[in-house]
Amino acid sequence: MAEKRQHRRFKKRYTVRFGTDDLSKSGFTGDISKGGAFIHTTQLIPLDARIHLQIQVDPKNFVLFEGIVQRHRRVPPELRHVEPGGFGVRFLYPGEVVADIVNKDTA
């Protein structure tokens, strides 16, 4: 099967806080790229939902993103120690966020 991803993925584990309205949910990255990440968590967000993410890159620094949930990986509880579940998120580019702000103000 041909690789469809535009950006190279890196297996990095960072702590992540996320949510649609706040940062009340948590997980960690399984892999991350310029375009998005896979978040290991049992707290799935609906597909196509827009979310806020805070990725802790070291004890003192974090990065904030907005993204769109693109896919889910559901894993039965008895298999989570072997294969963690979670969701894939596409990071929004700054232009996408600004376009949404401008469109809300003109609507």
Could you please describe the fold and organization of this structure?
With 107 residues, the chain is mainly beta. The protein is built from one helix and six strands; from the N terminus they run ββββββα. The protein has one helix at 94-106; strands at residues 15-19, 25-32, 36-40, 50-58, 61-73, 86-91. The longest helix has 13 residues, at 94-106. It starts with 14 loop residues before the first strand and ends with a helix.
Structural topology:
Layout: E1 15-19, E2 25-32, E3 36-40, E4 50-58, E5 61-73, E6 86-91, H1 94-106
Antiparallel strand pairs: 1-2, 1-4, 2-3, 3-6, 4-5, 5-6
What is the CA–CA distance across the termini? 43 Å
Q: State the helix count.
A: 1
What does the radius of gyration come to?
A: 15 Å
Biggest sheet, spatial arrangement of strands: 1-2-3-6-5-4
According to DSSP, the number of beta strands is 6
Give the H and E element order: EEEEEEH
What about the largest sheet?
Answer: 6 strands, antiparallel, barrel
- What portion of residues is helical? 10-25%
- What integer is the average pLDDT? 89
**Beta fraction:** 35-45%
The protein's oligomeric status is single chain
Note the overall shape.
globular
The stretches of 5 or more residues where confidence is low (pLDDT under 50) are none
Name the structural class: mainly beta
